[in-house]
């Protein structure tokens, strides 16, 4: 139960306060599961089933899930359940056979992207997709240097962990990795774009000086692990231009911001009016079924394809593709991109009203159904991780699930399923307001 600290993680400090059956489950995990696993929340949540925007524990308590990006259509969405069940009873095999369903889905998926992004390769996870994308980028550029933001998270393979600084000091960055600040207009002001342009130029120069060259800028377009920073939207184009001028490529990690979550089209990078060279997809793509992908410009993959044979046993196999196809259909049929925009606007207004009443709530920011509320110390306005965790824990005790993010762990991260409705949003706002009155100083 001990180990590297995780934002909103269970440390074991409150183990003795847990009910007996929870202590028994935690003990069994400790004696059965391998190293590194961690649980959410000071008081971990036991879940036994899910439905729509709710999770349920073994006692039947209903939790409003305002955090889960994996099941972006909501828990156990019938369209995905039916599609996977039908496919399991028909066929499941790999991409080394000719199968129309894989090609049909690929055409539909690529149709959601700018025309320049015209090829797709399937994997099982976002980590694998990022790993593959970097192999492709290295083959194309002949360089190895990577630039990411200072608290970015991009995955857990050895290669990808080497450019995921949010994993902490126990997971060191590779010598070929340089970091730049994430945008933070509240602190950086109107100079944010100029500041980051200067930082990326310095990173490029340093990579060249050490013989790595510039391979890729890898960015999550909502800057989720950096504390949810959706603005300014002219920034990514500036950074991408600097990297391309240095011989590198721009890789958009859409694992968290993609599939309509920002309410401004299918992909988060679209808000920034820039077309990436590669895009990686993950978690929400199969609504709980492991499926991910790397989307790319065909010319970027040409050198990799000449020299490398790529195969992924389950990447692109029938069952995950059936799940992903159902997700694509459902987002369109149920108007979930529009829903993310409308419900997101409702939440943004509601949180702004709550924030205005507390000195220690610095601001709410977000796009669509991806929001962050920044918590600061009332005495010195510095980040207050403890107070943020208290808010998260209070909400959990009142059956609402959110989490925390940012380099200081002080940004409440709100990322509900895309099927969140008006009543769900109203309940979340009511519960948050109540938690604030209990936890925050007046």
Brief sketch in words of this structure:
The protein is an alpha/beta fold. The chain has helices spanning 20-32, 78-88, 100-110, 126-141, 158-161, 185-188, 192-209, 235-245, 302-307, 318-333, 336-355, 385-397, 422-439, and strands at residues 49-51, 54-56, 62-65, 119-123, 146-149, 177-180, 216-220, 249-253, 278-281, 292-296, 361-366, 371-375, 400-401, 403-405, 411-414.
Structure overview:
Keywords: Aminotransferase, Antibiotic biosynthesis, Pyridoxal phosphate, Transferase. It comes from Amycolatopsis samaneae. Belongs to the class-III pyridoxal-phosphate-dependent aminotransferase family. It holds the Pfam family Aminotran_3. InterPro entries: Aminotrans_3 (IPR005814), Aminotrans_3_PPA_site (IPR049704), PyrdxlP-dep_Trfase (IPR015424), PyrdxlP-dep_Trfase_major (IPR015421), PyrdxlP-dep_Trfase_small (IPR015422). The chain has 442 residues and is of the alpha/beta class. The protein folds into 2 domains: 45-75 and 336-439, Aspartate Aminotransferase, domain 1; 78-333, Aspartate Aminotransferase, domain 2 (3-Layer(aba) Sandwich). It is 36% helix and 14% strand. It contains 13 helices and 15 strands. The chain has helices spanning 20-32, 78-88, 100-110, 126-141, 158-161, 185-188, 192-209, 235-245, 302-307, 318-333, 336-355, 385-397, 422-439; strands at residues 49-51, 54-56, 62-65, 119-123, 146-149, 177-180, 216-220, 249-253, 278-281, 292-296, 361-366, 371-375, 400-401, 403-405, 411-414. A 7-stranded mixed sheet has the order 4-10-9-8-7-5-6, sandwiched between helices. A 4-stranded mixed sheet has the order 1-2-3-13. A 4-stranded antiparallel sheet has the order 11-12-15-14, with helices on one face. Strand 14 (403-405) and strand 15 (411-414) form a beta hairpin. The longest helix is centred in the C-terminal third of the chain and has 20 residues, at 336-355. The chain is globular.
């Amino acid at each position: 139960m001990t180990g590297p600290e995780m934002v909103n993680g269970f440390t074991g400090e409150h183990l003795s306060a847990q009910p007996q059956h929870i202590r028994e489950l935690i003990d069994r995990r400790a004696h059965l599961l391998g190293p590194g696993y961690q649980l959410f929340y000071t008081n971990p949540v036991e879940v036994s089933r899910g439905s729509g925007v709710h999770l349920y524990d073994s006692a039947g308590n209903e939790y409003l899930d305002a955090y889960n990006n994996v099941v972006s259509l909501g828990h156990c969405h019938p369209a995905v359940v039916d599609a996977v069940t039908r496919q399991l009873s028909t066929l499941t095999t790999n991409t080394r056979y000719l199968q129309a369903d894989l090609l049909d889905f690929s055409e539909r998926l690529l149709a959601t992207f700018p025309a320049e992004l015209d090829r797709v390769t399937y994997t099982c996870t976002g980590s694998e997709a990022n790993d593959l994308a970097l192999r492709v980028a290295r083959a194309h550029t002949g360089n190895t240097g990577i630039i990411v933001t200072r608290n970015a998270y991009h995955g857990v393979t050895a290669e990808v962990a080497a450019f995921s600084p949010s994993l902490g000091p126990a997971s060191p960055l590779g010598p070929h990795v340089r970091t730049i600040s994430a945008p933070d207009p509240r602190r950086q002001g109107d100079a944010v774009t100029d500041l980051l342009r200067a930082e990326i130029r310095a990173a490029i120069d340093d990579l060249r000086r050490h013989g790595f060259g510039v391979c890729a800028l890898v960015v999550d377009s909502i800057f989720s692990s950096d504390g949810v920073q959706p603005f300014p939207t002219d920034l990514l184009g500036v950074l991408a231009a600097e990297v391309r001028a240095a011989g590198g490529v721009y890789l958009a990690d859409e694992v968290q911001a993609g599939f309509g979550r920002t309410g401004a089209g299918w992909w988060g990078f679209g808000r920034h009016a820039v077309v990436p060279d590669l895009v990686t997809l993950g978690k929400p793509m199969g609504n709980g079924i492991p499926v991910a992908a790397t989307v790319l410009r065909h010319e970027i993959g040409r050198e990799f394809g000449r020299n490398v044979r790529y195969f992924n046993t389950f990447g692109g196999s029938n069952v995950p593709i059936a799940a992903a196809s159902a997700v694509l259909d459902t987002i369109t049929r149920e108007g979930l991109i529009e829903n993310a925009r409308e419900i997101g606007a409702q939440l943004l207004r509601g949180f702004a009203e709550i924030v205005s009443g507390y000195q220690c709530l610095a601001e709410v920011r977000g796009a669509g159904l991806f929001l962050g509320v920044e918590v600061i110390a009332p005495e010195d306005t510095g980040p207050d991780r403890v107070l943020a965790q208290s808010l998260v824990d209070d909400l959990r005790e009142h059956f609402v699930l959110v989490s925390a993010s940012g380099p200081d762990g002080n940004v409440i991260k709100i990322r509900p399923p895309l099927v969140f409705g008006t009543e769900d949003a109203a309940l979340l706002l009511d519960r948050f307001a109540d938690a604030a009155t209990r936890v925050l100083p007046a």
